[in-house]
């Protein structure tokens, strides 16, 4: 093992983020975990290999909600690698038979507002407003570092903002450009769903949510869960950057604004 792998740090890679599939890898010296598994086991293994890691060393999987782009690989990975799987009761019930049978000793209930402690790596759950059974996202804490994920919510509540404020890093939703969505080919009921308080954050919503939450500790911001039909990576980045600069925030000086991809993992990075 190289010296860098022995360092006592919190490391993350956004393996995939988008409307077609989501998975985030979190690593400390004591634990390797996934948050969501919304792609096939084969694709997730390939993404892990691309950052020099393997699913064989992952011990735990935290599921945010039952939608396929977050849960597709949950059952396969749990059975193949013996992972401990954490989700709240609503999500377990909604995933049901779609993920197949998982040995009972690998199934763990983690309600919203709770913390799962894993040898110094603490995973804190919090509820969000999304049209799933009981959606929750996670902020991971290790030593004095925190990394928060929020990619499926119609709005950022004061409670969520308080939970994730001043994290060292964020994976934050910028799902759609409002005009692209309004002018696009989606049926009107689907457009209404996406724009609603139980839908997804637009680029502007994401920027405003980030600006209300980030703090002096914040050093890395990943823009995530971009719609393939209603957004463009460059547009999301430009919108967030422009809005932040308009509020006198020193983008790419005080913190880095980073893009994610549905098919390519971000480099494994120390938070």
TrEMBL record:
Q: Which InterPro entries match?
A: Metallo-B-lactamas, RibonucZ/Hydroxyglut_hydro, WalJ/YycJ, WalJ/YycJ-like
**Residue ranges annotated for the Metallo-beta-lactamase domain, each copy included:** 20-200
Give the Pfam families listed for this entry.
Answer: Lactamase_B_2 (PF12706)
Q: Which CDD domains match?
A: YycJ-like_MBL-fold (cd07733)
Cross-referenced PANTHER family: EXODEOXYRIBONUCLEASE WALJ, METALLO-HYDROLASE YYCJ-RELATED
Its name, as the record gives it, is Beta-lactamase domain containing protein
The taxonomic lineage of its organism, from the top, reads:
Bacteria, Bacillati, Bacillota, Bacilli, Lactobacillales
